[in-house]
Amino acid sequence: MSQRFLQISDVAEILNLSQRAVYALIKSGELPAIKPSKAWRIEASELEAFIQRQYADTRARIESDSLTDEP
Fold first, then answer.
1. Does 68 reside within a domain?
2. Residue span of the signal peptide, if any (predicted)?
3. Residue 50 lies in domain
4. Is residue 70 part of a domain?
5. Would you say 8 and 42 are in contact if contact means Cβ atoms under 8 Å apart?
6. 46 with 33: CB under 8 angstroms?
7. Residues 62, 54: contact at Cβ < 8 Å?
8. b/e per residue 36-54 (b: at least 16 CB within 10 A)
């Protein structure tokens, strides 16, 4: 059985981002997370939903011809 919750370090590795960048995504509300104790946890399904939203956003930017390096 796969893990239900991931640590920030796991998510950072999966997304090839820094842990600070993952924390910023959590703080902005873009990546839902919980903090059941002293450490943040991200549900695997929430990470997958975040990834799918990013794909959808990219497709929309491509279709509107506004694909740049800036979000």
1. no
2. none
3. 5-63
4. no
5. yes
6. yes
7. no
8. eeeebbbeeebbeebeeee
Domains identified in the chain, total number: 1
Q: Does a structural domain hold residue 47? A: yes
Residue 55 tokens read as 């794909």
Distance of CA 58 to the CA centre of its chain: 14
Integer-rounded Cα Rg, in Å, for the chain is: 14
Which strand (E) or helix (H) includes residue 3?
Answer: none
Residue-wise pLDDT tens digits, 8-38: 999 999 999 999 999 999 999 999 999 999 9
Q: Indicate whether 31 belongs to any domain.
A: yes
CATH code (residue 20): 1.10.1660
Cα(71)–Cα(57) distance, rounded to whole angstroms? 9
Task: Give the tokens for residue 54.
Answer: 């990013």
pTM > 0.90: yes or no: no
